[in-house]
Structure formats: C-alpha cells, structure tokens
Amino acid sequence: MTVILAAAGWSGAALGAVSSLVLAVLGLRAQRRPESVDRGHLKAAVQCVVGGAVLSMAALEVALLTDDFGITYVAENHSRATNVLYSITGAWSALEGSIVLWALILAGYTAVVLRQVRTTDDRLGTGALAVMGVVGVFFFGLVATVANPFGLEAVPPTDGAGGNPLLQDHVMVAFHPPMLYLGYVGFTVPFAFAMSALLLRQGGVDWLRRTRRANLVAWTSLTAGLVLGAWWSYEVLGWGGYWAWDPVENAALIPWLVATAFIHSAVVQIKRGMLQAWNFVLVLATFSLTILGTFLTRSSVVVSVHSFSQSPIGPALLGFFVLVLVVGFTLFALRGERIASMSRPESLVSREGAFLVNNLLLSLFAFVVLLGTVYPILVEAIVGSQVSVGRPFFDRMAVPLSFALLLAMGAGPFMPYRRATGALLWNRLRIPLLAGSTAAAAVVVAGVRSVGVVAVVLLAVTIAAAAVRQFVVTLPSATPRAALHLLRGQRAYWGGQLAHLGVAVVALAIAVSGGLATRASENLDLGGSLEFDGYSVTFDKTEEHREADRLITDAHLVFRTGDRVDYVATPRLTAFDNQPQAIGAPSVWNRPSGDIYVALSNLEPDSVAVNVYEYPLMSWLWAGGVLMAAGGLWALGGRRRRPAETTSTVSGPVGADGHA
Amino acid sequence: MRELFQRAGVLGAIVALLGVVVAGLVFGSGQPPDRAYELEQRLRCPVCKSVSIAESMSDTAVAMRATVSEQVDAGRSDQEIVAYFTARYGDWILLDPPAGGDTLLLWLIPLGVAAVAGVVVLTRRRPADEQGQLDDADRQRVTEAVAGMRATAEEEDRL
C-alpha cells in the first residue's frame, strides 16, 4: 500500500510537470501559428495537469488518513493520535505538502483559463496558457524533486512525530492557508496574460478585461486570508495582538498591497487608457512578490542566513524569483514601450490623479514593508552583523502612509475623471466632512486624547458618509428596487465603495483597539483577585483535560460585578506529548463594546501570572475585513459585460461609475 | 440666497467642530504614558520569533520586564535603559532600529524613494499644449465641443 500510494503521488506530480511542459510548448506554438495546434490538444494537456495535481493531493490525503508512516512526510508530520480534521489539514501544514496544494490550485486556475480560450485563434489566451504551463513546470517539478513529500522510510516507524502543535489547535488551519494560496496563486493568471500580451506585442485593455475576474477572486481571497490569519493569531497565539509585522505576515501583506494598487490602476487603463506600462510593472511585481514571499517564509532564510542551505526548496524558489524578474522585465523593456501608451493625467486633482497617488502610496507601502523584512537578512549577509527591524519601524512607516491612503480614499472616488474643481469637491464632501468632524468632536468631548484615534475617527466617518451620500444622491428614487438596480448596474464602483467602507471600519478598529487599549498584568494565587475595567477578577481554580495527544490545563478566572458572575475566562496551556514546549492560548470575551482578552504568562497549580487586556471595538476589525471581501465579491458578481456594451456606457449620472 | 447661507453654515459648523477637536487635543490632559510598557515594546525577546518582551510569555522576557520596571522605578532615563540592554545583547535587541550605523540606510532609502516618486509625479504632468496636429478650424470646433460637454458635465456634477 505504501509503495502504491507513494508511486501514485509522485507519478501525479511527474504527470503534472510533463503535461505542463507540453502545455507550455503547445501554447507558445499556438500563439505563433494558431492553425498549427488543435484546441483539443491544449485541453488534453490541461486535463492531464489537473489530473496529476488531484492524484498527487489525493495520494497525500489517503496516506495521512490511513496513518501510512512508510511515507516520510506522514512520518514527520503526522501521528496516530491526530484527529481526522488535522489529518486532512496536515496535507498543507508542512512545506512539501503546501507545495502540492499550490500545484493543485494552479492546476485549477489553468483549467479556468482554458475555458476562456474557445479557439486557438485566441492568441492572447493560448499564450497565457503557455505561461501558466511554464509556472506549472516549476511547481510540479518542485513536488517531483526537492519538495517531494512521497519519499519512503527505510524502516517505517510505528508512530509518527506529529505535526506542528500550533497548526493542530484551531479549526482555522482548514481555512486560512487554502484561502491565502487561492489568493497567491490566483495572481498567476494576470501575470500569464500580461506576459502573453507582451509576447504578442498586443497592448490595449484586452488582457486586463480578461483577467478581471481572476484578479478579483485572487484579491478577495488574499484579503480574506489575511483577515482570517489575523483573527487566528489573535485567538490562538496569546501575546495579545493580531499583527506582529512578522516576516511571515509581511510576506502575505506585500503582494496584497501591490495587488490592491493593480486593481485600482487597471481601472484607469480601462477607463482612460493611461498607466498601461505601469500595469505591466504591477502585475509582474505582484506575481514575483508572491514567489519571493513564499521563498522568505518557506526557506527559513528569515530566521537566519546560515540555515539557508538546509532546504533545497529555498534556492529553487529564489532562482525562480530571479528568473521571473529577469525574463519579465526584459520582455517588458523590449516590448513595453511600443505597446503601452505613456499618456499621463492632466491634473492630479482628478479621479485618475487620485488613482495615481493611491498607486504610488500603495507601492511605497509595499516597498517599505519589503525593505524592513529583508533588511536584516541583507545586513547579515553583507556586513555580517545582526540587526532587528520590528514593530516600531513598521508602525512609524505604515501610519503616515495609511493616513495618506485614507485621504486619497476619501476624495478620489468622488472626483470626476480629467479634472476636478475645488467647488465640486467641496460640494460633494462638505456633508461627509460635517459628519466626520461631528464624530471627531464627539470622541474628544467623550475624553479621548489620542491624536491618532481622533484623526482616524474623522477620516473614517468622512469616508463612510461620503460613500453613503454618493449612493443617496445617485439614487433615482428612494425604493429598494431602485437601490438594488443602482448597485447592480455599477457593480465595480459600488463593490469598490463597499470595500472602502470596510477599510474605513478596519482603520477605525485598528486605531481604537490599539490607541485606547487598557492592560493589567498580575500574579495571582489561588483565590486571589484583581480589579479590571470595573470587574473583580478572581483566580478560581485550574482544571486538567486529557486528550489523545495532549494535556490541556486551563485556569478559571471569574469576572464579577458585585456578586453577579459575568464571565468565566479559561485561558489555557496545552502540552503536546511530542513537544517539549507547552503552548498557551488566550480566552477572548467578545462584548459589543470591546473584547476582554485574558492570556497566561505562567501557570502553576496554585498560582498564575496573567495578562488582561481590554480592546475596544476589536470585533469591528473582523467586520471590516468581511466588508472588504464582500466588496470584492460584489464587484465580481453579475454577468460580464461585452466590450460593445462597455463603450456605450460612458459614465453614470455623476461620472461616478467604476470599470466594466 | 438661502442656499448660500446653508453652505456657509456647514462651513462654519465644520470649522467650529474641528476647533473643538484641536482645542481638546492641545489643552486636554491625557493619561501619563506607561514608560515601562513603552520600553518593553521596543526590546526584542531574545528567545522568541520577532516579538517584543512586552508580548512574550517566555521566562527570559519576564525577567527582562522585571529589569525594565526596576530601572524605570530607579529613575533611569529611556536612553540609559536601552543602552543597558544593547550593551548586553547588541543592537539586535532593538526592534526599533536606530537611524545610524548598520540601519541608517533602512531609514534613508524609503525617504529617498518617496522623494523621487513625489518629484516624478509632480513634474512629469502632461503638458497642456499636447494637442497634436490640428489646423485652426478643427481646433476651434474641438474647443467648442469640449466647452459644451464640460458645461453639461458640470451641470450634472452639481448633484
């Protein structure tokens, strides 16, 4: 059985690699001479790619679920005690398996691209399939060689080592990584079409239109993946936060920032024919940054330069990153100038001007985060000394950039194309500004003295009010039907506004939960208590729960007002049988006004060291994330417009419509 | 006329409200900062992955937090406390990289890139006279048509 599974899994990867190569060759040939290739052949190649990926993943899952410790990956990352859920998620909880997931998702996207390519006369499409094939060769090749999870153990152990305990403690491991990968891998599609357009010397908006759905799917998934990751980290890790500017987190944020810039600048090209060259750069950057991000997080280079050579996957990813950059930018340098117009906005105070500013800010943001992430690696590699770049640096860079982005977001969507006048802007923004300044004055009167919090309240409320005002003013009649008609008619614009609303809510939650947090840190003996936020908190008892592969010890901390028990917090410490270090998990009490977050820093049978935080409006962060993803989905929904249709709809009633 | 008063009223209200905000922030008294906590957030936990000692549960971080509190209580300045830790662990302990030494470039590069980007955007605007090869009659017709469109558009914009 072991040998059959390993052979099946490896053959799947090999089949994927070979058929990806065939797809690349056929696709390129079809792009040169459409009549020389039959679409049926392309289809067969894609089917083999998908089949190989599915076979590989299925073999891995079966091996995990049947405790087949003859296979190295299973022996190293699984144990008999692992339950069904974590057995399934085990397929992507370690490096090799996660590359299999990557290849599977890539195969899925390739199949989607094939559906768009109806005949081989579609030279842009066949070229894109070829590029997808080239990327497929690399990832399937990784699975078949250096990242092969199907190696065999000479002497199969009776039980495996078990996986990383942090990845077996929360159901989020089933959602966050696949979501993130759906985003990461999705950006292969716009990259493939952009490369194909360059190869074909065909500028224009065709490649943008055809990748719009893939872009939005990828962006929405990456957004959702980031928010889920933040939530997971907040619920599980117990250091009291959701974002640590850890390299692993940054690696996901950097492509997200560039991709966000790209979905904005794509609008400018489709609507106004500008920023064509810039869009090629952004797509190339997004794709290569997903590879670089995977390299940074998967090669352990971040922890130390010296462990660099331990995993051969690292150099492979780095090599592929360099290859993508060199080939991509060479092609762009040779062809880009000729096919991309260089026209620029006539005024910065216009919709396209605001888009341009937004693009610069997002790119700068991405650059700064990237610099901060790789700087310690570069310094250690070049100078040899060790330095740290942490939260204070990133915060100091991110805060002004975020404020500037909020400003652009407050004005940009309400400016007309070409040129906006001060009178027009004032006309559209005075009521929102009134709402924003009222809210800001209210929080100041209520006693808030943090400049950052007040400024974010002002901006966020103004942005939200401006979006609502725009909607009300554009609405032809105040009936639900008219509202739905408007929202459906301009999905891109209103989806964007919904996402902006989400960003405003997220900004508010970040500022308020950080700026107005309170915290207490105390050692309590059994029966001892502390006062926090109007509650008396008593350390009542500890309890032990034995599970198959772990011992969970939780402390009961009772929150009382007077004699009434309001909440019993049970932060816990989990000791895995196969791990020396126990891991803590906090207890989070979600209240409408804010979370009470209780984390242990030490646990003895009769005493605890406990950190208690109050984070106001914390749950708004997740709500804002949901709004952002919902905005992406809204823009995605509905039928695709035909090109003829888009040219006829010049603009909405206030020139406020998004892109087709 | 009434509309004019309304608009002036809105402007006045905004200015007044922002005045309240600024006055509140400038003259209001905030809580005194928690110096020990602020320092803890700037020091890296030596045994963890990229978190500060304020956020870590490790024994080392607990001990370092105790040291910070002791030194704050003893009245030592922030610089003295930070220097105490860098003397023991090197610059590596600082999550907030100093603008000097090995990390000087880290601060200069973003500033430089931002400055270049700003200059490019502000100076490379499309020249106003980029109008192509038109004879005077055509240009006249285009100008009139644009003016007409713009008038209509501005009507619509006044929503």
From TrEMBL, chain B:
CDD domains: CcmH_N (cd16378)
Residue span, CcmH/CycL/Ccl2/NrfF N-terminal domain: 24-144
One Pfam match: CcmH
Residue intervals passing through the bilayer: 104-123
Keyword field: Cytochrome c-type biogenesis, Heme, Iron, Membrane, Metal-binding, Signal, Transmembrane, Transmembrane helix
Role according to the record: Possible subunit of a heme lyase.
Family under the similarity heading: Belongs to the CcmH/CycL/Ccl2/NrfF family.
Protein known as: Cytochrome c-type biogenesis protein
Top-level taxonomy: Bacteria, Bacillati, Actinomycetota, Actinomycetes, Geodermatophilales
